[in-house]
Structure prediction request, 271 residues.
Amino acid sequence: MSTPTLSIITVNFNNNPGLQETIRSVQSQSYTDYEHIIIDANSVDGSKETIIRYSAESPYLSYWVSEPDKGIYDGMNKGIEHAKGKYIYFLNSGDFLFGPNVLSSILFDGTSYICGNMRMVYSDTEYEDIVPPEKIDGLFLLKSFLPHPASFIHHSLFVNQEYRTDYRIISDWIHMVDNLILKGCSYKHVNILISNFDSTGLSSTNGSIGLDERNKWIKENIPTRIYDSLMELDNFKNSILGSIIPIVNKKKHRTQKRMKKIVLLLSKILK
Prediction:
């Protein structure tokens, strides 16, 4: 196989039904400039046999292994080591692409992070569509996240920077913060529903662990005064007073000065 544009990495552990669904969604794609890599953590539920059958019938499965690992990020790092694509995309077992033309709809133009929308399914009748912002800033990422199963990440961002295995839940978020905020890598949002996310997975069922890990990382890496100031700014932006500022900025000079005085007075009163 020549160098593909996209490396799809699937990590699996004892989720054979979910793995089969993920494989079917990949096989259904009209897009063909990809390779598929499966990292299985020594499953005993028939997953290995599923991978063997898939390997025999698909020319796109470029690498697979079934062996013990040290967690999901260790599995992802193993996949990255064998990936040849210009972009990396993680579609773990149980997650699946939303339709057969999803990958064909993406323009892989060299942007560091290309992020689409993700549907988080809670039950047969309940779901939530996660839609990332058009622009990313530090405030957004400190409070929220980009949907990993809807993110196409340039391979160069993993050179000498694999996912940290000392965190169970948030290593992909740390990678986003480091590259998009601290290093200023490029980002674009594509308004396309990319994938359905299995809400029974590790990160979604261990929300408290993820929150603890995020708070730990913030405490270790961002000075308290700076973090508190950012949160105050965010609270102000989301307040009624914050919504007044764009209006103030559109007014003529004299009116603008008067309105700003009023806003400042109100902010003092409401403290």
Summary: Residues 226-269 form one domain. The CA atoms of residues 112 and 157 lie 7 Å apart. The radius of gyration is 22 Å.
